[in-house]
Amino acid sequence: MPLFDALPDAAFFGKDRQSRFCRVNRCFLRLHGCTDPAEMIGKTDFDFHPPALAAEYVADDRRIMEMNQPAHDQPWFMPHHTGMPRWYLGTKVPLLNPSGKVIGLAGVLRPIDQPGNAPHDYQRLTPALEHAVRHYRKSVSIPDMARRAGLSTSQLQREFRRLFRMSPSEYLMRLRLQLARRQLTESNAAIGSIAASCGFYDQSHFTRSFKKYIGLTPLAYRRQVWQS
Hints:
- By secondary structure, the protein is of the alpha+beta class.
- The protein folds into 2 domains: 2-111, PAS domain (Beta-Lactamase); 120-227, Arc Repressor Mutant, subunit A.
- 48% of the residues lie in helices and 17% in strands.
- The protein contains 10 helices and 5 strands; from the N terminus they run H-E-E-H-H-E-E-E-H-H-H-H-H-H-H.
- The chain has helices spanning 2-5, 26-31, 51-67, 120-135, 142-148, 153-164, 168-186, 191-197, 203-214, 218-227; strands spanning 11-16, 21-24, 71-78, 86-96, 102-111.
- Strand 1 (11-16) and strand 2 form a beta hairpin.
């Protein structure tokens, strides 16, 4: 682990067959707002991420372990302890015991927005991602994002789905929901106020979207977090 702790921008982790964390480095701890490995060892992504995101991470783990095939440079949209979600490129490899049986996997995450981390295709979309992050409180149009990347709207839609496995609109929704989730846990702001500050049309739109993604209404989620 000392070797992996020396990599400041590489978040390393190891998981067992049940996708429970068994190894994490300092960068991975910081990504999840933790300071001690004991806070993560034995837990799963469901203990740290919204159910929809955690299910995606774990399903990918199972696919890699069942197929016994590595996956290189996959894009993953992840919450960050600072509150602003980020895109990472992830590589996962299955771990085998001496008899060749898969017993888990190891992985590393690198932020896409760091120089040298991302291939050209991802770098080309960086202006569109940055525009969404800067203006998520307002109405962000997909054509505007496309212009920032020097693409047509249809090209942006295609490239987003090819590289990130989601549409630009889905990305905007996830960005806003993650930022709203942060506000719900760290402030006393009214639900309607949070909805407006995160770019939702109104409180009803926010509540429907939040429940679909997180599995709880904003108020129920806040109560659950505060009680725990």
